[in-house]
TrEMBL record:
Keywords assigned by UniProt, alphabetized: DNA-binding, Transcription, Transcription regulation
Assigned protein family: Belongs to the LysR transcriptional regulatory family.
PROSITE patterns, A to Z: HTH_LYSR
Coiled coil: none
GO MF terms held by the record: DNA binding; DNA-binding transcription factor activity
Record bears the keyword Transcription: yes
Protein name in the entry: LysR family transcriptional regulator
Length: 297
């Protein structure tokens, strides 16, 4: 038994809560994973996990051993990586999850440039707005554009994106330009609904954030669709600058309520854990941070 390999397998099983899920990630059969953990338990002379048909639970000894495994494997990974980084070209597999609109408009050119710079890194990009479980899906890094991080998120900030209230010149000529967020109740509003229900719009009023619950004539979970709807004169929408830019440049949309602009969204690299960061992941974060933080976000 290779003890380090067994410790890694045990750690994965503990994190995913499933022998089958780990076997799927490793491209092997469930029995191989089960035998490896059983061999580790026999070597240690203690039960690490309690199995049942529906669940897998760490024993108290298993929970304590898991913490030790994480610390030991972090040290091993860091030691090996430092030696390899000194003499080797960056290489290996790197799987990244990218938001759809921001990914296509801002990140895709940077990701291609990164791949050109580090051709030995095998880069796999998944463009989706779905919130994923990085550990379960084997993703090394996810980029997220948000104003609200979830508890427990492990992130590195890459840049910011400003939210803009937008409408077409034709709509404003017909319905008038609102001078205060409270006037939006008298307008047709088009709302972003990531989970099927629109959120209140938030503006900075008298130095503090104020929410406005509005009735939306149109909702979607894609900002490009909503920006196009606004450009066709269907109403007012709020969109990040990376979606609005082309419409503003073409004169199809105008900004409004600029004096009440909400705080910018953050652009974050989300990591699966706060343990050792692989060299390729660190290189990508540094690469994106330099460019997005310098105004490309």
């Amino acid at each position: 038994m290779n003890q380090l390999d067994a410790m890694r397998t045990f750690m994965r099983v503990a994190e995913l809560g499933s022998f089958a899920a780990v076997a799927n990630q490793l491209g092997t059969v469930r029995s191989v994973v089960t035998r490896q953990v059983a061999a580790l338990e026999e070597h240690l002379g203690v039960k690490l996990m309690v199995r049942s048909t529906r669940s897998l639970t760490l024993t108290s000894a298993g929970a304590a051993y898991l913490d030790k495994c994480r610390a030991i494997l972090d040290m091993v990974d860091a030691a090996e990586a430092e030696l390899m980084e000194e003499r080797a070209t960056p290489r290996g597999k790197l799987r990244v999850s990218l938001p759809l609109s921001y990914g296509l408009k801002r990140l895709a050119p940077l990701m291609l440039a990164f791949s050109q710079l580090y051709p030995e890194i095998q880069l796999a990009m998944d463009f989706t707005d779905r919130r994923i479980n990085l550990i379960e899906e084997g993703v090394d890094l996810s980029v997220r554009v948000t104003g609200r991080l979830e508890p427990g998120d492990i992130v590195r900030k890459l840049g910011t994106s400003q939210l803009l209230a937008l409408a077409s010149p034709g709509y404003l000529a017909l319905r008038g330009r609102p001078q205060h967020p409270s006037e939006l109740m008298r307008h047709a509003c088009i709302g972003y609904a990531p989970h099927g229900s629109g959120r209140p719009w938030v503006f900075m009023v008298d130095g503090r954030l104020e929410s406005f619950a509005l009735s939306f004539r149109l909702q979607a979970n894609n900002g490009d669709v909503l920006a196009e709807a606004a450009a066709q004169g269907m109403g007012i929408t709020i969109q990040p600058d990376f979606i609005a830019a082309d419409y503003l440049a073409a004169g199809r949309l105008e900004t409004l309520l600029d004096a009440f602009a909400p705080p910018p969204l953050g652009v974050y690299a989300v990591l699966p854990s706060n343990r050792y960061m692989p060299h390729a992941v660190r290189l990508l974060i540094e690469f994106l941070s330099e460019r997005l933080g310098a105004g490309e976000g």
